[in-house]
Amino acid sequence: xxxxxxxxxxxxxxxxxxxxxxxxxxxxxxxxxxxxxxxxxxxxxxxxxxxxxxxxxxxxxxxxxxxxxxxxxxxxxxxxxxxxxxxxxxxxxxxxxxxxxxxxxxxxxxxxxxxxxxxxxxxxxxxxxxxxxxxxxxxxxxxxxxxxxxxxxxxxxxxxxxxxxxxxxxxxxxxxxxxxxxxxxxxxxxxxxxxxxxxxxxxxxxxxxxxxxxxxxxxxxxxxxxxxxxxxxxxxxxxxxxxxxxxxxxxxxxxxxxxxxxxxxxxxxxxxxxxxxxxxxxxxxxxxxxxx
Amino acid sequence: xxxxxxxxxxxxxxxxxxxxxxxxxxxxxxxxxxxxxxxxxxxxxxxxxxxxxxxxxxxxxxxxxxxxxxxxxxxxxxxxxxxxxxxxxxxxxxxxxxxxxxxxxxxxxxxxxxxxxxxxxxxxxxxxxxxxxxxxxxxxxxxxxxxxxxxxxxxxxxxxxxxxxxxxxxxxxxxxxxxxxxxxxxxxxxxxxxxxxxxxxxxxxxxxxxxxxxxxxxxxxxxxxxxxxxxxxxxxxxxxxxxxxxxxxxxxxxxxxxxxxxxxxxxxxxxxxxxxxxxxxxxxxxxxxxxxx
Lengths: 292, 293
Known about the structure:
heterodimer, A: 292 residues, mainly alpha, MetI-like fold, two-stranded antiparallel sheet, 13 helices, 2 strands, globular, B: 293 residues, 15 helices
């Protein structure tokens, strides 16, 4: 057997677990959900074909669906936006070479990511308790009464954003690694040209960090699209549907209302949304000259 | 400005250096202050969790600070108030199987992508990377229906079997690591008559302990905290994991919060211990995930 063929055989053999897993746990579900999305299926009786009904109902009749999209978009735009600013800021602070105890600070920012989701939810119910939570007790010191957070339709989403920032230690570490990879000679050259710290940040740090920002933003968006446990446990979508995010609404349709066909259609719309995001990502990486 | 003006005497330039260090000192001070403020914001909820777990119910509602009397009995009660040990046993069982499955499958797969050159390899690897971005909810419903047809709902199988078929993030991490191992080692083994599997098992795996450790740690983290998987696939409360068990007692009317917080501390503690023992691997694994070669 010649080497090329032997290598092909060995290569496929080694990755065969992935091939099987991909076909059974990814490709098959993806296509069977396309089928289910054109049916009405409550698990008890067999699926009946309904054509485009599920999609029509989602896009033209289900008012809650648009609210859910809006809620999710809110988390994507403001949540990811704010988290990105805060995490880059902290990473830049940590990247200062005059700072001692870097590993201590790094641990502090990383600790929240170690809390299991369920415990995270319990913790934040209490941190943002309207009467005695630490946040509102702190605000009380300044003579202001904090908002109702999870019990207020206007403040529940910002509360989720606070949680998101608190749990963003992974992003901080990734940004820090990115910052440490920027050559010191670039800053040296900028200093010689008379650029101050702020100019250096905008003209060197940010452009050099672009690929890392892109990575964090994309994985952040995917995480928001999948965000489920926190909302399910803390608010169950309330108050007034203000925290019914995409993954939660899909779960409710599938497992609480037994509308498997409807939930599958939601799954496919989510797939298209994720696909568009990925395509935009690949476009942008190309334009920024960042290719594997 | 400095570049245009000639430097005739030394005096002013020394002054300049001095004032620069003063500015630098001030800057360092500001950085410290900001870092400490941010650190407090990140650490206080943690401290609150611990202090809350040591209060009684009425104090929990009235006193956000340090408990007046430490209620260590909360911990004792937490272990008996709900089937903590049963849920712990279930969680550990799933964990052990997943660690084994992830280790076996991902090392093999990553080896195929890193150490053997074959046609289509890089094209298929792009598919692997793409699946990393696929939200779980896209395949959640049909997966549930598939597992139901197979009779797997209400067993541990949906939470363990997929671990034996690779995880894109782990494949990526291990592949990166395998690429860095010198190829001469494989070549000389091949000349000595070793086949591909032997090279994988005897040469590449023993050299990859750091990357394998990272994979095991992340498997632990994912399985330990997983919520949606057990929620959907475990219909029998004798099979509940800790995460699901905690949520279930939380959703009853008037749950005993201090006990829940004690459970919360107990559930976070093992993760913290492993983190402090293996910090290097955590940080490396995460830092690596953001850097695509």
